[in-house]
Amino acid sequence: MYAKQFFILILTVVTSVSMYAQGEQTPFELPEFIIEGKRKPTTIKVTNVSKIAPSISKPLTKEQLDSLLQKEEHRNAIRSIPTFILPERPTTPYDGFLRGEFGNYETPSIEGGYAFSFDHFTCFALGSYEQSSGHVPNAQFSKLDASIRTQYIAPEKFYIFGGSLTETQIQFQNKSYSFFGSPLRQNRSVNNMSATVAIEGSFEGFRYDGSASLQSLGLTTNGFDAGNTLLNGSLDISQRWEHAMVGVGSIIDIQNLQQSTSSFIEASGFISFISDKLTLKGRGGFQVASPSVASTRTGLLLDGSLQYSANKFFTFRAHGRSGLVQNTFSQLLTANPYLLDTSAIDFTYDKLRLNAAIELHPTTSVQIQLGTQFASTNRSIIFQRNANSEFTPTYEDATILSPYGEIFIALSKKIQLSLQSSYTISSLADTSGSIPYLPEFRASSSLNFFPFDGFRIGTTGTFMGERIVQKGNNTTIPSFFELQLDASFTLFKGVQAVAKIQNLLNQDIFLWEMYRERGIFASGGIQWQF
User: Taking the CB of the first residue and of the last residue of the chain, which one, N or C, has fewer CB atoms within 10 A?
Assistant: First the structure.
């Protein structure tokens, strides 16, 4: 019996590789100065396979959230502003949707999706397209995104994989835009294709969780072609031992950019202990990374987390890590679309990264979180602009301290309010001043109002403090307050009128030096759910 288990364990390790999945960048997603690596796409266990409309993402329950947090042992970046999980919305009876809008700057957009399921199989298909003539000369753009995602729960009759959850995703993205802040007015087209398979399940006491992905990214900038191919894999295998779960894990990234190659490899062991009030998790291992233009990096991974729930009103969370951080060209391009296409790849090393927070939830209508994050790193990623307004990543030693707070209040069934703020003190080892593009203070608020059934009004306000743009000097981009309004009104069953206004105060908003975001933007349209 044990020989058979050992053979299956070795076979699974040898044949498993995994993926890296990029998150979508929203229009007002402020760039992070440290790129965060993710081992693989988060998998949410499916308890039933009833039809779910892809248009409305359902907030996670506390149990699902806890399962996700347990998988985030390699989360590296200091988060921008913490976010609570809002109360659940009822499951929609619709299978698909189609949404069309038109806004100023000649900006049409269309988005659609459909979900269907049978037996143990569920499929989600999503697609969207948007284009605009731009808010300033040479600022035109277009975006196309299409994906198919499936979930399959294997029947128990399947050997080894009975009861396992398998997720696949095939995605294609195309983005065309211009460097409108550059004197060269470069035009760029980006094609990104990826295919992913992820699986989790258990067999004869062993639990396995792994995935595999291949990503191909090509970009053309003023006729110059660059390509990036990424193969990514991870696998965790664990087994219960007394009152704990123990296991081993591995990660491998191999990417090729032009004529250079970089890689990241990690082998680790982990243990977790979960009781009614206390959860302890620890992981340790060895890391080897090969940058594209530097010598081999090695690291010792130490990662631990603690969660203590004293009662239903109070929770304490803490997480700390030390070790290398994954980094890919695709991550850099997502963080900064004006990235120089010959940028070098190196790997941040967390000497120490800590995050501790107290969560107070006196009632189901009130949630409060207070926390502090600290990071001391080698080779943090810092973006610097050149004379052509292209951005090159440099790798600098940095220290960051960031206390934060957040409150969510359901004033009534019709009014929900949330407030967030953070204050950051940062420094670079070789210069005076803070980290470029990282503000000292930022805050946001949101209010959702449901005056009557079928009608919703939402407003979001974001304040971003002044930021320096070049290390070692006092050149800054100004602070701004960005106000957004959006509304939806049900015309009749399955059909809604939608409208939104962004940058209502017409602020001068710069996410990157020389690149001013659009002013007041208004759009409206129709959403049909079927």
Answer: N
Q: According to the model, what pLDDT value does residue 93 have?
A: 61
- The reported pLDDT for the residue numbered 266 is 98
Burial (CB < 10 A; 0-12, 13-18, 19+), residue 374, is middle
Q: What are phi and psi of 406, to 5 degrees?
A: -155, 145
Name the pTM for this structure.
Answer: 0.80
How far is the C-alpha of 219 from the C-alpha of 207, rounded, in Å? 40
Fill in the DSSP letter of residue 258.
T
Rounded Cα gap, residues 351 and 321, in angstroms: 8
- Are 228 and 348 in contact by the 8 Å Cβ rule? The answer is no
CB atoms within 10 A of CB 55: 21
Distance CA 22, CA 163 (A): 28
Give dist(CA 304, CA 273) in Å, integer.
Answer: 12
The DSSP element (H or E) to which 281 belongs, if any, is strand 278-290
Sites in the chain below the pLDDT cut of 70: 1-93, 157-160
Of the candidates 32, 43, 101, which has an alpha carbon nearest to the alpha carbon of residue 71?
43
Residue with tokens 């980006």: 190
The two structure tokens encoding residue 376: 């001391």
What does the alpha-carbon distance between residue 399 and residue 425 come to, in Å, rounded to a whole number?
Answer: 8
Scored b (16 or more CB within 10 A) or e, 214-236 reads bbebebbbeeeebebebbbbbbb
Predicted local confidence at residue 77, as pLDDT: 31
What would the two tokens of residue 151 be? Answer: 């979930």
**Cβ burial, residue 327 (10 Å; 0-12/13-18/19+):** buried
**Residue position matching structure tokens 């999945």:** 21
Q: pLDDT per residue over 384-398, tens digit each?
A: 999 999 999 999 999
Distance of alpha carbon 358 from alpha carbon 495, whole angstroms? 42
* Nearest to 130, CA basis, from 24, 206, 21, 45: 24
Query: pLDDT value at position 269?
Result: 98
| Torsion 87-90-96-102 (CA) sign | negative
Residue 273 to residue 282: CA distance in whole angstroms = 9
Q: Are 252 and 212 in contact (CB under 8 A)?
A: no
Q: How many CB atoms lie within 10 A of CB 457?
A: 15
Residues forming a β-bridge with 13: none
Interacting residues of 15 by C-beta distance below 8 A, sequence separation 6+? none
pLDDT at 223: 85
Residue matched to tokens 């302890």: 280
DSSP 76-100: -SPPSS--PPPPPPPPP--SEEEEE
Q: Which helix (H) or strand (E) holds 71?
A: helix 62-71
**Closest Cα partner for 335 from 23, 3, 14?**
23
